[in-house]
Write a structure and sequence with these properties.
Strand content of chain B: 5-15%
Bound molecules: zinc ion
Helix content of chain A: 55-70%
Largest sheet of chain A: 3 strands, mixed
Oligomer: heterodimer
Order of helices and strands of chain A: HHEHHHHHEEHEH
Protein name (chain B): Cobalt-zinc-cadmium efflux system protein
Number of strands of chain B: 4
Distance between the termini of chain A: 48 Å
Distance between the termini of chain B: 33 Å
Keywords (chain B): Ion transport, Membrane, Transmembrane, Transmembrane helix, Transport, Zinc, Zinc transport
Helix content of chain B: 55-70%
Order of helices and strands of chain B: EHHHHHHHEEHE
Number of helices of chain A: 9
Strand order of the largest sheet of chain A: 2-3-4
Radius of gyration of chain B: 26 Å
InterPro entries (chain B): Cation_efflux, Cation_efflux_CTD, Cation_efflux_CTD_sf, Cation_efflux_TM, Cation_efflux_TMD_sf, CDF/SLC30A
Subcellular location (chain B): Membrane
Structural class of chain B: alpha/beta
Largest sheet of chain B: 4 strands, mixed
Largest interface: A-B, 75 and 81 residues
Membrane topology (chain B): Multi-pass membrane protein
Chain lengths: 319, 335
């Protein structure tokens, strides 16, 4: 028999061994979005820092520091998206896909820590609201709205499907919101001279960001724990598999995310009448990919009903 | 019939990976205790160490306020952060023990690995901070109260020795090893502080303090790095260090009736469970039940892998398309 030793094993269109590899719709390439956003934000950091030094404004320098951390967060997400495209090795047999999950998790944590910092600062200001130097701060914040808003827009398209991109999107959108808050408060304060408005609006913004980030944190944690990806229904998949002709029962069904965009499945099918053949498995694999978004499925066909339980489950309750 | 296990480059065929790794793996079942017992031992150790550290932090804080010693107060602060990292380890150990459910089909074992990752990152940050501080001290030496430092350091040493002893008896999971590493780092820090205090007291050479701190940093940097790599390996679904991917593939291919093996994945679901999935090309459908049983027995006995999904395929049945021959290389790669 012929073993095609083609390397790397590509997925040729006529290669109908559907489960031979991780074939997935080529994820939308956000490389350009990342480069643009990183360049814009780096430029912003430099200008903020220069103006901050010139105007001797600690607020501006502090904000430059924050934006520098944004650049790092973007680099992290970009690096993960790039690593995720690297091929598998004998050490990392799934490739480095799951780096996208860890990057999303890290970005969620960064964002929450930053929120904690802002909230702390705001609470401090309630006791002694400093007179806000409206002019320069508002001008810089206005530039911030444009840069962060534009960066957020670059990632908007991918923010629904890819958790890693959503992390970048959320952060940029949050920063645009903060800048907007600064401009609005600056304007309000110059009319009313209510200096407590500044910390109050900061706290409100923090609340909104935390609410948005919480979902990101939960979902990335679930993926990092090898949990069932949020958009997938474990019971529906189980029902689909159990309903197949010849399948007596299924057990040991596992579904997890290989990356923020690709899912994998393993399952044991009890088929007392014998192995149904390749065509059956190919059909299952294709339906799972098309209808459930599972890109990498492996099925163990068993004829006897002897072992019916996940080895993990047995290990945990074995004593 | 002898099967082939095809690798993506022939040079790897007799390349054995596992000889130098066998000593430093972290998997529980290789340490003699069954996973469940090892886990509960780890939890007990973490709980004891946490109570100990918290109590001591309280004592130090009270003593610090009463005597007005800044060294005592700041060490109390350190002990509080130690308690926090022990608490993280303990919580994740408890949480990680929860069984599988519809949203976590592998259970929650990875909680502990994430906690180990977070704790090793915190350690790295701490090492960086101490190193920067030490360099600053070298450049701008400050007067140090040698005797005061020594008193605090001796107290810290006692607590850390006790905590390290407790933890080392339960250090079976990646998670509790991370906690142990932190306490060991603190223990070495106390020893360095005692030495530095003595040297400063005797000779007045203040540079001893930062130099010794940097030495401790270097010591813990190595094990922190190792821990970080191990937890990342699990989270990135890498092949566990003590297992040889090619050896497993070859062993499967040598099972009677197996023609070839591809799409082989071996990864750790948590710090104590390894999973495997693979496609086996077999000669005839009739032989499959026997082959499956043989492969399961082999994997469990030789490699201690008990969570296995093997997909059978028949090469000869696929005559429809000559181009559709299976690329028999593993791991699969997506270009
Ligand atoms: Zn296959
Ligand atoms: Zn930001
Ligand atoms: Zn089974
Ligand atoms: Zn299972
Ligand atoms: Zn410590
Ligand atoms: Zn695969």
């Amino acid at each position: 028999m012929g073993h095609a030793h083609t390397h790397p094993h590509g997925h040729t269109p006529d290669h109908d061994h559907g489960h031979g590899g991780h074939h997935h719709p080529a994820p939308t390439d956000f490389g350009r979005a990342f480069v643009l956003a990183i360049l814009l934000n780096t430029g912003f950091v430099a200008t903020e820092f220069a103006f901050g030094l010139a105007a001797n404004s600690t607020a501006l320098i502090a904000d430059a520091g924050h934006n520098l951390s944004d650049v790092l967060g973007l680099l992290l997400a970009w690096g993960a998206a790039w690593l995720a495209r690297r091929t598998s090795t004998s050490r990392y047999t799934y490739g480095l896909r799951s780096s996208s999950i860890l990057a999303a998790l890290a970005n969620a944590i960064f964002l929450l820590v930053a929120c904690g910092g802002i909230a702390w600062e705001a609470v401090m200001r309630f006791t002694a609201p400093p007179a806000v130097a409206a002019g320069t701060v508002m001008a810089v914040a206005a530039v911030g709205i444009i840069i962060n808003g534009f960066s957020a827009w670059l990632f908007f398209k991918g923010s629904k499907g890819d958790l890693n991109i959503r992390g970048a999107y959320l952060h940029m959108a949050a920063d645009a919101a903060v800048s907007l808050g600064v401009v609005v408060t600056g304007a309000l304060i110059s009319f009313t001279h209510w200096f407590w408005l500044d910390p109050a609006i900061s706290l409100a913004i923090v609340a909104v960001i935390v609410a948005g980030t919480w979902g990101l944190l939960r979902e990335s944690l679930q993926l990092a724990l090898s949990g069932v990806p949020p958009q997938l229904d474990h019971t529906a998949v189980a029902r689909y598999l159990a309903e197949q002709p010849g399948v007596h029962s299924i057990h040991d069904l596992h579904i997890w995310g290989m990356s923020t965009t690709e899912n994998a499945l393993t399952a044991h099918l009890v088929m007392p009448e014998g192995h149904p053949g390749d065509a059956f498995l190919d059909r299952l694999t294709h339906t799972l990919e098309e209808e459930f978004g599972i890109h990498h499925a492996t099925f163990q066909v068993e004829m006897s009903v002897l072992h019916q339980q996940c080895a993990l489950h047995v290990a945990r309750t074995g004593h | 019939m002898q099967g082939h296990f095809h690798l993506h480059d022939a040079g790897h065929h007799d390349h054995s990976h596992d000889d130098d790794h066998s000593a430093n793996h972290s998997l529980v079942f290789r340490k003699g205790l069954p996973p469940e017992e090892a886990r509960s031992a780890s939890r007990k150790a973490l709980r004891l160490a946490l109570v100990l550290t918290l109590c001591f932090a309280g004592v130090e804080a009270v003593a610090g306020v009463m005597t007005g010693s800044l060294a005592l107060l700041s060490d109390a602060g350190h002990m509080v952060t130690d308690s926090a990292s022990l608490l993280l380890a303990l919580l994740s150990a408890v949480f990680g023990n929860r069984p599988a459910d519809a949203r976590h089909s592998y259970g929650h074992g990875r909680t502990e690995v994430i906690a180990a990752l977070v704790n090793s990152l915190i350690m790295l940050a701490l090492i960086l901070y101490i190193a920067v501080e030490a360099v600053a001290r070298l450049l701008h030496p400050e007067p140090v109260n040698g005797a005061g430092v020594m008193v605090v350091a001796v107290l810290g040493l006692l607590v850390n020795v006790l905590a390290a002893w407790i933890l080392s008896r339960g250090a079976h999971t990646l998670n509790s090893r991370a906690a142990l590493l932190h306490v060991m780092g603190d223990l070495l820090g106390s020893v360095a502080a005692i030495l530095a205090g003595a040297i400063i007291y005797a000779t007045g050479w203040t540079a001893a303090d930062p130099i010794l701190s940097m030495g401790v940093c270097l010591l813990i940097l190595r094990s922190t790095w190792h821990l970080l790599r191990q937890s990342l390996l699990v989270l990135m679904e890498g092949v566990p260090e003590h297992l040889d991917y090619y050896a497993i593939g070859r062993a499967l291919a040598e099972v009677e009736g197996v023609v070839s093996v591809h799409d082989l994945h071996v990864w750790a679901m948590s710090s104590d469970h390894v999973a495997l999935s693979a496609h086996l090309q077999v000669g005839t459908p009739e032989a499959w039940p026997r082959i499956l049983a043989a492969c399961q027995a082999l994997l469990s006995r030789r490699f201690a892998i008990d969570h296995v999904t093997l997909q059978a395929e028949w090469p000869l049945a696929r005559t429809a398309d000559a181009a559709a021959t299976v690329p028999v290389i593993s791991p699969d790669q997506s270009a």
